């Protein structure tokens, strides 16, 4: 059950401030202390925006990452990082993200960087006695990470790459829990994008082996969406191929993307809620229409027709990194306000 009925949360990423975008393009002009200051300041900005919106759960906005998962490859030994994307011009699409060559055994002796991110969030957030929002970390799963690596003679396909990455991700999850993280999302959007043509039970088995050491030691969730690079989806936008198989994932909560899909398949949350908590994406991160509190309240009421309040939380459809900050801020404010209206109606 949800710690707070109709809880408000986010997935992980948040837009970079404009000055951080500029700095990231000129990092050669900064020293290590300057970069550390940039990371701290950007985390404070993202954290403050979320706290001011009234969210129950916040993240560091992934401000020290290049993207949802791109920075993780910089921590992995045995790969030759791609220098430039294969297609640079024209309409944005996923082929503007190239793949990295695998040149040796995949290892991460320094970890994947998420622990340092979480410790920074802990250090900069309000002290525990202030009873501020819950702090959450998010880490991409091994199947999703494998998608940007090129198979070779040692790792012959994506499945082999996934198996090599799995212990690296599992160790990072264990270290996050040891560092005090009590709310953790393992993002596997590639699983939701490819469930229509791959065995969903195989995905579940991979996920469960990845999270096995931390089950019961934190509140664990996964985020299932259809891609959001430059606000573009990449997979067939249907949840039917995933269920009921994905209900066997060892976790507390499953997040589903609904707003950008006009709440198609909303009935799936009833199926999820019978066994797991469900986080519903009720804010469209692909649209610059700013949902009003009344819009949000109507969407919450729709969800309540399918699942009870103590099983529901609400979030944007996906991470907010591809949405301009001015829009992301107001969308979160209105999301919290709309959910608050329904909480008040229900006397929560």
TrEMBL record:
It comes from the Bacteria. SUPFAM superfamilies: UROD/MetE-like. Residues 167-337 form the Cobalamin-independent methionine synthase MetE C-terminal/archaeal domain. CDD domains: CIMS_C_terminal_like. One of its GO terms (biological process) is methionine biosynthetic process. GO terms for molecular function: 5-methyltetrahydropteroyltriglutamate-homocysteine S-methyltransferase activity; zinc ion binding. PANTHER family: METHIONINE SYNTHASE (PTHR43844). This is Methionine synthase. It comes from Humisphaera borealis. The lineage of its organism: Bacteria, Pseudomonadati, Planctomycetota, Phycisphaerae, Tepidisphaerales.
